[in-house]
Design brief:
alpha+beta; 2,3-Dihydroxybiphenyl 1,2-Dioxygenase, domain 1; globular; eight-stranded mixed beta sheet; 8 strands; homodimer
Amino acid sequence: MTVPLTRIDHVGIAVRDLNAGIDLYTSLFGLTVAGRETNEAQGVREAMLSVADSPGGASYVQLLEPLGPDTPVGRFLAARGEGVHHIGYGVDDVAASLAALREQGVRLVDERPRHGSLGASIAFLHPKSVGGVLTELVQSAAG
Amino acid sequence: MTVPLTRIDHVGIAVRDLNAGIDLYTSLFGLTVAGRETNEAQGVREAMLSVADSPGGASYVQLLEPLGPDTPVGRFLAARGEGVHHIGYGVDDVAASLAALREQGVRLVDERPRHGSLGASIAFLHPKSVGGVLTELVQSAAG
């Protein structure tokens, strides 16, 4: 059973300095900050910058500054420097999507949905199962 | 002057084998192939897979297989393995966007628009100027 993707929800980008990243994307591209939060569980301080709205929901550039070097994004920065960390796609139901993907033998990072940005329910799939791309499924709070 | 982004147009993903990549994204996520082409100038064989439609235009996963090791995507694969290669954002006018970004001191890969996927007019910005992200501006053929 396939898991239909409703949209590209966001591009997750690792940055060393969140404020500098926000300045860059707002000054070059006029993006606006839809929300800022600290996610201790993921070890990041982050901002969601709106790119556009679509019927399936908005799309964002998500900037991620690690809370310390010994976090997933901290290790990513040390190994690769700033750049794209993951891609988030919209789905209607994260829990059902995880069940369907598990049945297909996809390796999951998250066995069950957890708290994401802007109140969304999210889960990560392992890059080994998605062609080297750390892939996030996003069920937005809006619907 | 900022350059407004109208949407996340596509995520460009480097793959070793285009057919295997297409099989993966169609079987897991039910994406459909909107177009396949070979771009000799960029040294890639590629496919655009539709994720969703939005008022600003469709969004895609773009899979890129290098035509040889001595191409940008071939060198990317050798250095980093499969994964996200670049992000493409929609703009209304690529030429005007390049002029505005050049004035802001942004380093450009392409000084003028060139031919992209599905008949689009495109240009790349250097990752040094966009927080480590190879960034593509896309003016789609549809409008």
